[in-house]
Amino acid sequence: MRSIIDMGAMRLDAQVIPVGEQLALPWDLREWFAPEVLRQWIAEEVDSLDWNNPQVIEHLRTRPGFQPKPLFSLMVYAYATAAFESEEIVRRCFAEEEYRLIGGPNARWDARTFTRFRRENRGLLKWALVQILKRAIRAKRGDFLLPAGVKRRLVGAAVTRLDLARQMDRGNDGL
């Protein structure tokens, strides 16, 4: 009986991290990596999405001027660098060059735009954050196969960041 796994395509050089080993991620990934590294990773992940999907094209056709790639990239960068509140992201867009490099010189988003985008694209933001957290762990600890327990922790870390952003924005609305 032939296996459905292509043994030639399997990686034999990857390390395995035991699930029980302590794995701590900084809230701000700039503690581990330069901003340009994070921006590059985010750009690669965002570019890996199918931007030629007919549904995406139709959505963009009905919203002329809407630029989802820089907005999406900026939000992933913000959540990866411990900027969770939408008002804080707006402030950083004006105050920090690394945010302006992602959004572009003419980007003028307000807090409601970030809040709405997060609400409408939570699953996509979670996916992108998990991809960036995976890259961070692999770059910091070496290339290894992610055991299920570590994958769950990374998904949990991404969800926690999104939940924190939502709660901070709700708290801001209540003031």
Describe this structure in words.
This protein has helices at 35-47, 54-61, 68-80, 86-95, 97-103, 111-120, 122-141, 148-173, and strands at 15-16, 144-145. The protein has one domain. Strands 1-2 form a two-stranded parallel sheet. Helix 1 (35-47) packs across helix 3 (68-80) and helix 4 crosses helix 6. With 175 residues, the protein is mainly alpha-helical. It contains eight helices and two strands, in the order E-H-H-H-H-H-H-H-E-H. The longest helix has 26 residues, at 148-173.
Short overview:
The chain is an all-alpha fold and 175 residues long. The chain is 61% helix and 2% strand. The protein is globular and about 45 Å long.
Which structural traits does this protein have?
single chain; 175 residues; mainly alpha; two-stranded parallel sheet; 8 helices; globular; disordered N terminus
Q: How much of the sequence is in beta strands?
A: under 5%
Oligomer state of the chains in this structure? single chain
Radius of gyration: 18 Å
Strand line-up in the sheet with most strands: 1-2
Give the helices and strands as they follow along the chain.
EHHHHHHHEH
Q: Number of helix segments?
A: 8
Based on secondary structure, the structural category is mainly alpha
The portion of residues assigned to helices is 55-70%
Distance between the termini: 66 Å
The biggest sheet amounts to: 2 strands, parallel
